[in-house]
Automatic annotation (TrEMBL):
<dbReference type="InterPro" id="IPR044730">
    <property type="entry name" value="RNase_H-like_dom_plant"/>
</dbReference>
<dbReference type="InterPro" id="IPR036397">
    <property type="entry name" value="RNaseH_sf"/>
</dbReference>
<dbReference type="GO" id="GO:0003676">
    <property type="term" value="F:nucleic acid binding"/>
</dbReference>
<dbReference type="Pfam" id="PF13456">
    <property type="entry name" value="RVT_3"/>
</dbReference>
<dbReference type="InterPro" id="IPR012337">
    <property type="entry name" value="RNaseH-like_sf"/>
</dbReference>
<dbReference type="InterPro" id="IPR053151">
    <property type="entry name" value="RNase_H-like"/>
</dbReference>
<dbReference type="GO" id="GO:0004523">
    <property type="term" value="F:RNA-DNA hybrid ribonuclease activity"/>
</dbReference>
<protein>
    <recommendedName>
        <fullName>RNase H type-1 domain-containing protein</fullName>
    </recommendedName>
</protein>
<dbReference type="InterPro" id="IPR002156">
    <property type="entry name" value="RNaseH_domain"/>
</dbReference>
<feature type="domain" description="RNase H type-1">
    <location>
        <begin position="45"/>
        <end position="105"/>
    </location>
</feature>
Amino acid sequence: MEDTVRAAECFAANVYEANYKKKNRKASIEMIKWCPPNPRWIKVNLDGAANRNRDLSMAGGVFRDSFGTQIEGFQRVVGRGYAINSELWAILHGLEITLIRGHNKFAKREGNMVADWLAKTCPSTDVNLRILDVPTFYVRKLLLEDKFGVPYVKTN
């Protein structure tokens, strides 16, 4: 229970910090890379995206073990709205899958290029939650880059 409370506090602090940075935005560049969870833990990377051109919001996520191997992923169009709505849908679906699969240890979000890609490439006609048992070719590429510690550039 304490881990869950700490994770929620960390998430709230990150949301606050992101909103603060957005209001006081100065151009910055960060190098970010995915870090594996401890052995026997599962890391859940989640992301949401709002596509202004098609006015769609999408959610995606990936579950990985301590070796960086994908256990499963998901994608879903969550309707129209803002990016924050799709972020919350991604959290909800990540928690649903966690409960269904019986995972009880998971690590915080960081370096989530796979989840970002899953959220942004969700088929626009599919409103049902898509569970991805086998990673696509591009997801495998991103998973390998994460395993080898390849950083990516984050700009705001």
